[in-house]
Structures are given as C-alpha cells and as structure tokens.
C-alpha cells in the first residue's frame, strides 16, 4: 500500500480522520493535495481566500501556517516542491510530488485528503504513479442534518465566490446535494475495483477506538497498533488552527463533535420531501458503515 485517499464532501470530518491516520507509524498526510497543486499549477492564490475577504472574514489560508508549524512558504515539504512545479501541468505536478515524497519520506504511505470523487484514479492510478492495488480509499460520510447545518453556516462565503445561482445553497438543495454526491460516491467505489471502506463521521467520533481498529484492519495493519499519542506527521495547508500542535510532549488525539445542528429545525419544515435523504442517511449509518 502506497496511498490512502480520503474521499468526502467538505465539512465531513476529513481533517480529523487524516490527523489520526498521520499519527500512525509510517503514514504521512499532505492534506488537500489537489487544491495545493492546482493553485501552484495555475500560479494563483486560493479562490476561497478572495471569497473570505469579500465577506470580511479575516481567517484566510494565505496567512495561516502549515499544520507542521512552519509558515506556509517555509514548510520543509511544500516549499521546495511548489518552487519546482509552479506553473507546470497537473500531471507534472503529481509526478514531482511522488518523487519529492519518496525522497523526503522513503517507503512511507501518503495520505491524500483531497476529498474529490475519483481523484485517486485521475491523479495517481491513470498516469501510472501508483498501481491500483496500492491504493486504499476511505469514503467518509457525515449525518446529513449535521452536514447541512454546517453548510448553511458557510453560505455567505460560498456565495461570495460568485459562481452559484440564487437558491443553490438552500437547506433543501444542500440535503439533496448530500444525497446525490454520497450515493454516487458509494456506487463509483463499488464498481471501481479499488479497495475501499465507508466510514461514518458520527461512528468515528462516538465509537472512536473500535472504528479506528476497523479502519486499521482495512489498511492491512495490526488493529492493536492504534497510536493516539504520537504527533501526526502532516503538512496540511488548508486546515483550521486546531491542527497546530501546541505541546508535543503531552500530545493525545481526542475526537470532538460539533453538536450545534441539534438545535437546527430547518429540515423539519420540509417534512416528507426529505424522506429519500433520510432513508439513505439511515442506510449509511446502519448498514454501510458497520463492521460485518
Ligand atoms: Zn508543513
């Protein structure tokens, strides 16, 4: 195994999952690789930073450091690579990435949490950088009520990108977007021939250790080897401030959950219109994400 690819909708808990994986021996997380390389390839600033500024949000990514603690333009992993691949085509960027990763972390497993559907195929398998048998995909799904609530909170920033028609981010549309994307994700993985595992964000948080053992088993590792006190090896340029490690000596990974959706009644207004969404949500949490 050379690559673990985390696929999910944004705001589904992928940051936390990649952090736990990056704390396991021999695994290094590089965060949202496709986003970093695309910006480098096009020699542009992240488009979301412009949107953030437009709504007066000061937490732009260009000012926050890499999760390794270094300033983003001084990170020991990304700085030399981004200098090398800036302005090159995406396949060149990925080829450069794999070379650079092997030099910096020989023999280790790359964790890519780009999240985008089929990203493992387009960027690694199709160009022959990683063979299909060396890829493991984790599809992470969050309860739709929690996800919609989180998306509604970010509506202003999303509209500020100027790419969406009015009404596109209503609660109802978000709920169906959750359904379509996750249903398609499950379907694509089932027919991909790639080893994959579907994980519920809620189960991961509330039944943390046994879910992690299930994931480690899927990755072909000893489930008893779960490490929660090793400092994660990760270079995530788009993470929140919570990714920064303040005290490496007493470090311990602990799951946390954002319960703010519990007091959100938006979905109730739509009643039976949301039934297909609720039904798939039930199927995900009861059938797809439980150990057999
Ligand atoms: Zn870094």
Provide an overview of this structure.
The structure is a single chain. The chain has 292 residues and is an alpha/beta fold. It has twelve helices and five strands. Helix 7 (144-153) packs across helix 9 and helix 9 (171-192) runs parallel beside helix 12 (275-288). The longest helix has 22 residues, at 171-192. Zinc ion binds at residues 66, 68, 70, 75, 77-78, 235.
Give a brief outline of the structure:
The protein has 292 residues and is of the alpha/beta class.
Write the layout of secondary structure elements.
Elements: E1 3-8, H1 14-22, E2 27-29, H2 33-41, H3 47-54, H4 78-85, H5 90-104, E3 109-115, H6 119-125, E4 135-141, H7 144-153, H8 155-160, H9 171-192, E5 195-200, H10 201-206, H11 208-218, H12 275-288
Parallel strand pairs: 1-3, 1-4, 2-3, 4-5
Helix pairs in contact: 7-9, 9-12
This protein binds zinc ion (ZN).
Zinc ion binds next to loops.
């Amino acid at each position: 195994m050379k690559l673990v690819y985390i696929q999910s909708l944004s705001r589904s808990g992928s940051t936390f999952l990649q952090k736990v994986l990056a704390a396991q021996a021999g695994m290094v997380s590089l965060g949202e690789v496709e986003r970093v390389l695309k910006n480098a390839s096009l020699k542009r600033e992240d488009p979301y930073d412009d949107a953030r500024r437009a709504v007066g949000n000061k937490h732009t990514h260009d000012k926050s450091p890499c999760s390794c603690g270094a300033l983003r333009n001084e990170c020991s992993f990304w700085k030399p690579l981004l200098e090398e691949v800036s302005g090159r085509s995406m396949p060149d960027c990925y080829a450069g990435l794999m070379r650079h990763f092997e030099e910096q972390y020989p023999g280790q497993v790359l964790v890519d949490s780009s999240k985008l559907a089929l990203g493992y195929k387009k960027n690694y398998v199709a160009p022959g950088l990683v063979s299909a048998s060396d890829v493991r995909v984790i599809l992470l799904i969050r309860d739709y009520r929690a996800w919609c609530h989180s998306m509604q909170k970010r509506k202003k920033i999303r509209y500020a990108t100027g790419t969406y028609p009015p009404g596109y981010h209503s609660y109802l549309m978000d709920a169906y977007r959750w359904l379509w994307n996750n249903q398609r994700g499950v379907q694509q993985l089932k027919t991909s021939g790639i080893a994959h595992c579907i994980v519920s964000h809620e189960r991961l948080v509330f039944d943390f250790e046994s879910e992690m053992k299930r994931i480690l088993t899927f990755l072909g590792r000893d489930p008893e080897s779960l490490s929660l006190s090793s400092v994660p090896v990760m270079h995530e340029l788009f993470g929140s401030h919570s990714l920064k490690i303040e005290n490496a000596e007493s470090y311990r990974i602990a799951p946390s959950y954002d319960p703010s959706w519990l007091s959100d009644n938006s979905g109730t207004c739509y009643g039976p219109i949301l039934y297909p969404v609720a039904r798939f949500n039930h199927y995900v949490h009861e059938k797809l994400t439980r150990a057999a």
